[in-house]
Amino acid sequence: MSLATLYSRARVGVASPLVTVETHISNGLPSLNIVGLPEAAVREAKDRVRSAIINSHFEFPTRRVTINLAPADLPKEGGRYDLAIAISVLAASGQLGEINLRGFEFIGELALSGEVRGVPGLLPSAIACHQSNRQLILPEENQQEAALVEGDAVFAKHLTQVTAHLLKQSLLPACLVKPSEPLPLEHKDMKDVKGQYQARRALEVAAAGGHNLLFIGPAGTGKTMLASRLPSIMPVMTEEEALAVASVQSVAGRKMGLDWHWSERPFRSPHHSCSAAALVGGGSIPKPGEASLAHCGVLFLDELPEFDRKVLEVLREPLENGEVHISRARGQVTFPARFQLVAAMNASNEAYTGGQDYYQSSASQKYLKKLSAPFLDRIDLHVEVPPLPSTILVNAQEEGESSEVIRQRVEVAVERQRARQGLRNNQLSGRQLETICALNDADKAFMQQALETLKLSARAYHRVLKVALTLADLSACEVQRKHLMESLSYRKMEKTLTSVAS
């Protein structure tokens, strides 16, 4: 056999397209050429593969070797193709006999000794391989990632183990999640929050409907404390969501270990000095940013006006579509970014003086101008977090509801949404919303008056209806006037914010 064909996987964002590795050995001066748009690391594979084959007690063919990585227009990068290239060379040179390699996929980097090393971003490849009904052969270092997928994946430490498995001399072990004691998560419970009943209610509504939330108030009123407790009341992730979160973490280069609670909803809190690329992703080889790392979780932006305005504007696309599209000269990459935005801000960068004119002072007006009205329009709930009375802070108070009690109500509301429309309320389109949340004539007149008074945009109107629908789901009933009124109360800062934001 002078021609061998087998399969591997590329990495493009969180996608993993199939790569066909074709190796042809012909007469001519000894050489090894790799074609198919290989990057530098892939071109250097010929030296790693040659040494790995020789040190594994095989013969490297002393003829002309041509390796094609198809499709030819897909850029190939990294050392993930080393194992596939080595196996294809051995098969094409006849050292593996007449074996069928169509039912396997190979991913792994090779050391000069023939040892198989781990590669980043393997989980999307394991998912795609499982969907193709092929057996994935991968490095031992990546076995815990592959074990998250119920597929036929096996791992190897050395090239000789892979060849023995293909020749059915000794089979490779299946991928398993190693039992380990993960580091304990920091326990944050809603019962630790004193007072702030409206903010607590807003958090429950946000968790039930997947809504974005903005806390506004002076320093030290508990905005950050409240935001950090949102994951504790959010519904448990489905298996599909958990795999999506793990895929993003895998592509970002994070490995399963003692500090990776992959089944927990992520909570990301970038510093206000971060760049647009850090927030939504970027780079010459695009990597996910904070928005994608918060997929299915919470993206918390503290001190919102301190973020650069241009940085905040790049969040418009993921807030609307749940995805981040990054375009580079070499191609386009899409990362998932369906997160819940929770932001916190003071109304002024000066000391809190109290009084009714706190939000109307010249210092507040100047500070709020850092935010754009279109960005604020995409946030569903605007909630004021006022200073707590000293009696509540000093005196012993009864504990509020725990996160577990609130989460049970949230789970019931989420199940109601999934049974009715198959997705969360915040993901409803305008047409779906009008069908599900149909108002009677009296409520339509009420909402028309509210729109004119608050000067709400069409987007804000739809968000008011979505929040009202979530409130109705928490009460296990249809949308009523009281739900519309409560939903509008969460936009009471709208006029103050948008009047100064430009």
UniProtKB/TrEMBL annotation:
Q: Which domain of life is it from?
A: Bacteria
Q: Which residues form a coiled coil?
A: none
User: In Gene Ontology terms, what is one molecular function of this protein?
Assistant: ATP binding
| Listed InterPro entries | AAA+_ATPase (IPR003593), CHLI-like (IPR045006), Mg_chelat-rel (IPR004482), Mg_chelat-rel_C (IPR025158), Mg_chelatse_chII-like_cat_dom (IPR000523), P-loop_NTPase (IPR027417), Ribosomal_Su5_D2-typ_SF (IPR020568), Ribsml_uS5_D2-typ_fold_subgr (IPR014721)
Q: Return the Pfam families for the record.
A: ChlI, Mg_chelatase, Mg_chelatase_C
Give the AAA+ ATPase domain ranges: 209-389
Q: Which NCBIfam families match?
A: PRK09862.1 (NF007365), YifB family Mg chelatase-like AAA ATPase (TIGR00368)
Q: What is stated as this protein's family in its record?
A: Belongs to the Mg-chelatase subunits D/I family. ComM subfamily.
Which protein is depicted?
YifB family Mg chelatase-like AAA ATPase
